[in-house]
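Task 17 of the worksheet. Students: predict the tertiary structure of the chain below and write it out as C-alpha cells. Keep your answer in the requested format; marks are given for formatting as well as content.
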Amino acid sequence: YGCNLVRPRTFSEVKSLYGTDMGNIFSGGILYEYTEEDNEYGVVKVSFGDSKVEKNSDYDNFKKVLAAVKPQGVKMDSYKASGKDSVCPAASSVWHVKSDVLPPTPSQARCQCMIDSLGCTFKSDKLSTDEGKLVGEVVGNICGATSCDEISVDTAKGMYGDFSACSSLQRSAWAVNKNYENQNGAVCEAGDVETKTVSSPKQDDIKECLNKKDDNGTAGKPSDSSSGSSQDDDKNSSSGSNSKDEDSSDENDSDENDSDDSGSDEDIDEDSDTSSGASAVTAQLSAAVAAALLLAF
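Model answer:
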C-alpha cells in the first residue's frame, strides 16, 4: 500500500488496516517503497556510492501513524470457520465439463512415440494456413467414417483419448494413418498435403507409447489419471493395428463452427499452439467432426 497521488503522503489508510476496521481480516502489509526512485514512492533518498540515507517527509509521516495504531491480531482459537468447500457444477447444457475427471498430462515422449509408430504420415512437420485447412477437412472426413476416440476429447463425458493431448498435426497424422490401415495400406494421402509411407517404423507397437512418461516425469497410461479415457483394455486402440472401418461412437450433433482463418501462407511451426496452420486444422476438424472429434489446444 502507499498511494502517492497526493504528496506528502499522510498514510490515512494505516489506521484502518491495523485497527478495528480490518484487524480481523488483515494479516499485515508492506509499504511501497523504501528508497526513492523516479516514481516517487520512496521514504528515503540514497545515492550510489554513498551510505548516507536522507529521510523525507513521507518517512516521518509513516512513522507517526504507525506509532498511533495498536494492532491486536486474532488468536487461533478465535477463528471459527464458517465457509464450505466449493463444489464444481455438474455437466449440463451450459456447463460442458465432467468435473471429476481430469485430462491426461501432456507427454511429448508419448506423442513422439506415436508418430514413430505410423506407417503413413506427413512429409513435413510444418503446415501453412492453407495446408492446415486441407488437413482439417481430410481428417474430418476420416473421423466421420471411423472412430477417432484415441485423439478425441469430450469434456462433458470426461472422455480424453490416449493421444488427445498431442499437437493438432500429430493427431491429424494419427487419423491419416488410421485411414491408411483401414484400407490395408492401399492409400496414404491427405488431400493435396504431401504424405509418405514408412516401411519400417521406429516404434513397433503403439501400445507401448502409452507407458511413456508424461511431461511431469510420471510413467503410466493416460487412463491411469483419467477415468474417462476412451480405450478399453481389450480394445485395439493403437493406430498400428489393422482394424476395419468402424462407426464413430459419438453422433456428430454439435453446431458447426464458422471459423474464418486468415493468415500468412508462409510455413509455420505446427508445434506452436498459436500457429495459424494449427488453428486452421482445429477449426476444420471442429466443423467437420463436431462432438466426435473435439480437438483443444
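Marker's comment: The chain has six helices and eight strands. Residues 225-275, 282-297 have pLDDT under 50 and may be disordered.
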